[in-house]
Amino acid sequence: MDIFGYTSSTYVPPTQSYTTPLTSFKKSSAVPGVSLHSAIHSIAQTNFQDDLISLLSYVRTKKIPIIPISVPDVRCVLGHGLSFLVNGAEMPETYIDHRSGVEFPKGMIVAMKRSVVRDDMTDIIGHRMRVLFTEILTMCHPPLLAHPNIVKLLGICLEIEGPGISKIAIPVLVVECAELGNLAEVLETARKEERPFGFEEKLALYADVAHGLEVLHACDIVHGDVKCENVLVFEKDCQSKEPNWPKSRYICKLTDFGISTHTAGNITLGGSRPWQAPECTRDAYFTLEGAKRTDIYSFGMLLWRIMLDGDPFKSLGEFEGNTARDRREKRNDAIALLKQGDRLVKHACDSLAMSEKFSNQQLDILHDVMGITLTKDPSARELDIGKLIRLLMPNKWYQRRHPVSPQRISIDLNIQLLDIEKDFASFKKISQVAQRRIVVGFQRCTEAPAGQDTDGAAAFQLAICYATGFGVPVESDKCLKWLVIAANKGSRRAKQALPLVAEAFDIKIGDHVVIPKADLSLSSPSEDQGNTLSLELLETWPSGDKNKIGIGTEGSCAGWTMFRAAEACRYDIIELLLSQGIEPEVSEDGVTPLHFLSTWDENIAEKLGQKLILAGVDVNARAKRGVSVGGTPLM
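Structure tokens predicted for Protein kinase domain-containing protein:
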């Protein structure tokens, strides 16, 4: 979208959805002060993912679709883990992301992954943003994005949380939905319906997980929580093309990378009892190789669980306790004792033999693999996942599934600042609360230490916000002031736009522009900028159309209807139309401007809603579509 009327480079959507590796961007276009060192430094050492504007800048740099849905049609809870709550959801309307070219058809079933709040979080927002960023960073890494055994990230949306003026916008991940559920659920269903998987099909399921973990480790990524609940099961479109490979109706994909790590040392791991390695204690630190070996242990536990149809602990007997949680804790304690005494390999192999489900040859194969995955000694665990697959399937053809060559996640990424002008089609539909948080993010960028926002990119984005009413009221003076600041910092786009905007406001700009000390917005630019900003601009500008409409003037509502302004949350346009005596209309499907009240900023909604009622809006109209289907505006 061309906000200020000058010609900018045209965006051409890619032919495929965000599958190309991230290219480097010039430093002057990067988010101020942002430098991510994910491959060799701890995530905690960077402030990148603590900030919404930085995360959204990364998302758009990677061409990840931002879906303008704040309240999805949640159908059910699909899962709840340490990092995320996952809901199934249905797309309420068709949406096409203009930058990636990805289409989300109406009725499409997706999974919504919300970062969870835990009691042990000291910085709730910062921690959740870090978890979200880790998940996005991992899922969008090109070797993983192209891999058939890694769950695909489809996009993100912004969800509003909190009461009243304390509302915040939190990103929610939109990923492909496995309607069959996770591997634990699939195994349990098959067991209860007495139609368990055969040995060959179990091997095929396990091999899928193996290939997913193999590509993670090849990229020096540690999953940290390998278990059946973090493996999603999909119907397979076609049979494997790999020669002599076990046939299966399903394909498994690894998910939940919120606690994964891409660091080289001093790694702390989460994980879940009873699936984690015995050395995974609360205060333990690992090297990269040591952390990978904990994944291998969990991988051995996964094999045991799959082979016993999801219930490997039946051989331990029943545990007493007042609640299911008490019984589960006692069971986990019993397993921990087996691990610490290095007796789990024998116990697991004995339980397989007692099940009477396997031939002697199959038991020998399983014993060999468990012996080099479930051993207490980390150094004795086999890190070569390909070797584990070959041991399990000695007569099958093995080939790595690496559509894109594995590589470590980039050490240093310069991320292009979120551009509202380019992304206006996506962002204009998100809630006012989310828009406001984005504006706050731009404001913080302008307040960054000297030497950061060097090209005035954040100030230019604030000018766009005030020109379009994005997150703030349309205010021509503040738009012009932020344009001046951006131009003074060297923004080429601001210098191009400034004469056009000044002409629209009928303001003459000379060699010097005096900026009053009036409040510029959320807070004024830093005092050390002074009150006079020198600009290398011409004394006069070429004459333009004298009838050109100025932003925020009475003529700026030309082409708008009350209904359209209400849907777009353009409060300034509604005020102008009301002042001109325009009556609020009712659409053919029974929707009035007042039906959009719930989507407006609550600080504005009550007062403006009363004005609409006084102007004669039909409070009894029943909507046939939208957020208030079947209801009147005040229901």
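The chain is about 35% helix and 10% strand.
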